[in-house]
Amino acid sequence: MKDVYIFAIESSCDETSAAIIKNGKEVISLSIATQIKVHENYGGVVPEIASRMHTESITYVIDDCIKKSNMKMEDMSAIAVTYTPGLLGSLLVGIEAAKAISLVYNKPLIAVNHIIGHIYANNLDDNKIMFPTLGLVVSGGHTEIIYMEKDYDFKIIGSTLDDAIGEAYDKIARVLDLKYPGGPNIEKIAKGGQPTYKLPIPMNNNSLDLSFSGLKSSIINLVHNEKQRGNEINKANLASSFQTVAIDELIRKLHLAFDKYEVNNLLVAGGVSANNYLREEIKKLCNKRSINLSIPKMIYCTDNAAMIGAAAYPLYLQEKFVDYDLNGISTNKKYII
Length: 337
Ligand code: KG4
Ligand code: ZN
Fold this sequence. Notes:
The protein has two domains: about 5-120 and about 300-315, ATPase, nucleotide binding domain (Nucleotidyltransferase, domain 5, 2-Layer Sandwich), CATH 3.30.420.40; about 130-295, 2-Layer Sandwich (Nucleotidyltransferase, domain 5), CATH 3.30.420.40. The strands form two sheets. It has a five-stranded mixed sheet, sandwiched between helices. The protein has helices at about 35-40, 45-70, 90-105, 115-120, 165-175, 180-190, 215-230, 235-260, 275-290, 300, 305-315; strands at about 5-10, 15-20, 25-35, 80-85, 110-115, 135-140, 145-150, 155-160, 265-270, 290-295. Helix 9 (about 275-290) links the parallel strand 9 (about 265-270) and strand 10 (about 290-295). The protein is an alpha/beta fold and about 325 residues long. The protein is globular, with a radius of gyration of 20 Å. Helix content is about 45%, strand content about 20%. The structure holds 5'-O-[(R)-(carboxyoxy)(hydroxy)phosphoryl]adenosine and zinc ion.
């Protein structure tokens, strides 16, 4: 079969990214422009600023990606773009750029779901999704345990009933006066601490569902109470305590999921999969249960267009192309995949 080259664009949140992916796997070229330094000043992503900055950097990122590849747009088999979920203004910048390229170069257009992109980051480079598999999706907006029997077949078997784990990381970072994005900064200070604070264990039962808002609120209350009493908080110990409880809970639920499903593959997806404590604990679980583990390389864990190209590949093979009436869907729907 002829090699398939997908030119992919991602702009759903605060990273503008373009990539060229060969046969759903090989990263020929990847460019990412991050806006973190700007949003850091506001303690989170400001949608209006995000879309304006995407507009400023999209052509630069696309040109840079093509230049680094030594290929031409004419060589591409298709153009792929993230259309949901995300910030509407941000999504639209990528979508309109993708439509323009598709029209000018007469290439089919593929619409990709961002969360499915995170999942398919597990097909990049040396990784390969092996079916059937369980998957742990841990991002800023999602915390789900999924079961996949084949490509694009997602069964959600457990999900957070309230906050996503990344959201909890970000909100707890804020009360500890740590910069956005909270996840990596909590991880950093937790390294110098011990899990000395007693915190409630979320959803301490045998269901596969999860919950992080009680844990988050108990930490916010604890910080406020201690401040009112004039007591110092040991931030490193509190960050370590939160991380230990939250991640141990994910691991406990994964054990339950593997008890229920006779599967010996696990993939991990989403921004929180960049967390080293989570990566180590998951490795231990997989060693203990002889499970094949797939976690994307660090660079493919957070938002990037390479994962969008990987997720577009099965759609390309099935000729699932879209028209130019493609629109962005920001969505508050709980389950998007
Ligand atoms: O998947 P992602 O890039 O965005 C969504 O698609 O939602 O995930 C972003 C989330 C943020 O909540 C961020 O704080 C968290 O991933 N994150 C981390 C780490 N790196 C990013 N959380 C914990 N530890 C990290 N090292
Ligand atoms: Zn993401």
